[in-house]
């Protein structure tokens, strides 16, 4: 085919335009994210007699989003979470009942239980410098003020708890939003938006008096020239990210203009400013302070990275959100961090303290997360770190979780294939580490000490591997495993199914001077024990196992301490497969 000259020129121009568009998209970050996916843990199946059980999700219905938010929120109608569900009297009763069942003790070589250390993710690329290098300062942007009513992305807020009426009352008009396009800074917004909506009140101090929406084509950069980015509680301000948000060396917080003071927490029902990053967004909070945000309303918890709701997500058609939170401080937020259907989020080197309900709370179907090198402490109501409802393939490593009102670290509600390693978990008011209804979890070389209840608690979970952990001076057992029938507890069994089964392998480590026993377990499918150092019991009469272990204590101790071999405790009618 011979092209006419005009056609050839036209095609050449079209090709140049397409190539230019691709280059521009790459420059502005509109192409696929440049970060590889976080490596998935390789948690082995086990113990040896039940490799076929509970290694995948039940077919729970994900059409509804039910979260751990509040008694008023749909999620909390079904159950609470973590270690506030069990009491000591019930623990004792279950252990007594379990001791009546027929079990046998098998002896095997400890070599069969050998496990190589997990290959932990390389954290070296998750740095402040690498995050800042992602910023693209073109094209130069603009800001506009218009109604929120026609924007799909705000429908997750509309019609719930009369929030639209609240915002209209605070704004004294139909709710409006500052929409940000292109690359902008707070100074840019202040130059383009009327002072009644956004104002620089002093050098480095900015006050937003309307919600701000960072559009999918936009980047908002709150940099180290901003000493205080304030979201006005009086005017109903909050921050929505649909594009790229960078907070680097700055402070973001809720602000009460009437009191000229931070919007500190008073009541969970009282509106406070918040930030939420929706599907398709990228969020980078680096060397910054985020405080005084969030309350008990959907997606308004404080700092959230969330896919759109199940009804809205198909219409928006955006990938799951992601982000890095590095070397920052989070305090007095309803949740220090929350995510929903997020992927490849990195939470590294932060200090989460004095948050209200949770410190760090990844939720529904979030995957491939790294929670590393953080401090999570002094959470006022519940846990320091909790991953809940099908949060899979993630790493909770080298954190400190202490002085929280309930547990230090919780893995909850069918979260599978996670690694909890090298954490220091101490002085929590309930358990140190709690695993609820979450099979195939590796608990590797953690230190759990001086927690008021159990050092490590496992409930209704199979294929648990506990290797090299040290549990010292906890109020009850060093390691405690049990089953529980959760029917009739208010739990939504469609969303959160459970199985009354437990199995675990405990190898190495030390269980020292714990209150009731080194190890207690009831009705396991299998318990494998090897090379566990148990000494200095608090009881004057020496080591005393609880549950089914208590019935076989003499034989178990003989195998472990005199023969130096591994114990497999199993129901009398179960068969044993060789461990690999």
Automatic annotation (TrEMBL):
Compartments where located: Periplasm
Coiled coil location: none
Domain Carbohydrate-binding/sugar hydrolysis, first and last residues per copy: 299-459
Manganese listed as a keyword: no
Predominant place of localization: periplasm
NAD found in the keyword field: no
Annotated InterPro entries: Beta_helix (IPR039448), Carb-bd_sugar_hydrolysis-dom (IPR006633), Mannuronan_C5-epimerase (IPR053409), PbH1 (IPR006626), Pectin_lyas_fold (IPR012334), Pectin_lyase_fold/virulence (IPR011050), SCF-Subunits/Alg-Epimerases (IPR051550)
Cellular component GO terms, alphabetical: periplasmic space
Signal peptide residue numbers: 1-25
Keywords: Periplasm, Repeat, Signal
Gene3D superfamilies assigned to the protein according to its UniProt record, in alphabetical order: Single-stranded right-handed beta-helix, Pectin lyase-like
Segments of skewed composition (Acidic residues): 61-73
Region named Disordered: 35-90
SUPFAM superfamilies, alphabetized: Pectin lyase-like
Pfam families hit by this protein: Beta_helix (PF13229)
Membrane-crossing segments per the record: none
Superkingdom of origin organism: Bacteria
Role of this protein: Catalyzes the epimerization of beta-D-mannuronate to alpha-L-guluronate during the synthesis of the linear polysaccharide alginate. In addition, is part of a periplasmic protein complex that protects alginate from degradation by AlgL by channeling the newly formed alginate polymer through a scaffold that transfers the alginate polymer through the periplasmic space to the outer membrane secretin AlgE.
The protein's name in its UniProt record: Poly(beta-D-mannuronate) C5 epimerase
Organism: Solimonas terrae
Origin organism lineage: Bacteria, Pseudomonadati, Pseudomonadota, Gammaproteobacteria, Nevskiales
């Amino acid at each position: 085919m011979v092209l006419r000259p005009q056609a050839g020129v036209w095609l050449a121009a079209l090709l140049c335009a397409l190539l230019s568009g691709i280059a521009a998209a790459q420059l502005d970050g509109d192409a696929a994210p440049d970060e590889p996916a976080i490596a998935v843990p390789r948690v082995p199946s086990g113990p040896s007699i039940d490799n076929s059980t509970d290694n995948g999700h039940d077919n729970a219905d994900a059409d509804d989003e039910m979260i751990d938010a509040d008694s008023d929120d749909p999620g909390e109608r079904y159950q609470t979470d973590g270690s506030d569900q069990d009491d000591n009297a019930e623990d004792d009763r279950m252990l007594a009942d379990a001791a009546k069942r027929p079990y046998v003790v098998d002896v095997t070589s400890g070599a069969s239980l050998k496990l190589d250390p997990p290959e932990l993710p390389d954290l070296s690329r998750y740095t402040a410098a690498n995050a800042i290098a992602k910023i693209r300062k073109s094209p130069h942007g603009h800001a506009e003020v218009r109604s929120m009513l026609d924007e799909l992305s705000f429908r997750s807020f509309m019609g719930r708890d009369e929030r639209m009426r609240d915002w209209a009352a605070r704004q004294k008009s139909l709710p409006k939003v500052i929409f940000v396009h292109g690359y902008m800074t707070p100074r840019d917004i202040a130059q383009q938006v009327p002072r009644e909506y956004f104002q620089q009140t002093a050098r480095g101090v900015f006050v937003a008096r309307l919600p701000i929406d960072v559009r999918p084509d936009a980047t908002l950069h709150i940099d180290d020239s901003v000493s205080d980015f304030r979201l006005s509680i009086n005017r109903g301000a909050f921050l929505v990210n649909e594009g790229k948000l960078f907070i680097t060396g700055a402070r973001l917080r809720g602000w009460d203009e009437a009191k000229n003071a931070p919007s500190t927490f008073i009541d969970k029902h009282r509106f406070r400013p918040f930030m939420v990053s929706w599907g398709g967004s990228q969020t980078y909070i680096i060397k910054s302070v985020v405080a005084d945000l969030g309350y008990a309303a959907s997606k308004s918890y404080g700092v959230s990275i969330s896919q759109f709701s199940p009804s809205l997500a198909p219409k928006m058609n955006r990938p799951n959100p992601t982000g890095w939170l590095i070397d920052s401080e989070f305090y007095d937020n309803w949740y220090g961090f929350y995510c929903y259907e997020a992927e490849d989020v990195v939470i590294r080197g932060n200090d989460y303290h004095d948050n209200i309900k949770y410190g760090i709370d990844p939720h529904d179907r979030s995957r491939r997360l790294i929670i590393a090198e953080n401090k999570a402490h002094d959470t006022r109501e519940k846990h320091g770190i909790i991953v809940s409802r099908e949060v899979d393939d993630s790493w909770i490593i080298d954190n400190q979780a202490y002085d929280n009102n309930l547990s230090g670290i919780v893995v909850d509600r069918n979260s599978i294939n996670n690694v909890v390693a090298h954490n220091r978990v101490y002085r929590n008011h309930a358990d140190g580490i709690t695993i609820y209804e979450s099979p195939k979890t590796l608990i590797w070389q953690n230190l759990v000490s001086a927690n008021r209840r159990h050092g490590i608690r496992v409930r209704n979970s199979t294929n648990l591997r506990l290797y090299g952990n040290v549990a010292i001076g906890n109020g009850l057992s060093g390691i405690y495993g049990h089953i529980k029938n959760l029917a009739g507890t208010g739990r939504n069994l469609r969303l959160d199914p459970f199985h009354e089964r437990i199995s675990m392998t405990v190898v190495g480590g030390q269980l020292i001077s714990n209150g009731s026993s080194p190890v207690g377990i009831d009705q396991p499918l299998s318990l494998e024990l090897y090379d566990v150092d148990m000494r200095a019991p608090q009881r004057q009469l020496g080591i005393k196992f609880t549950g089914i272990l208590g019935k076989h204590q003499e034989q178990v101790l003989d195998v472990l301490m005199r023969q130096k071999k591994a114990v497999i405790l199993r129901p009398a009618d179960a068969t044993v497969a060789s461990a690999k």
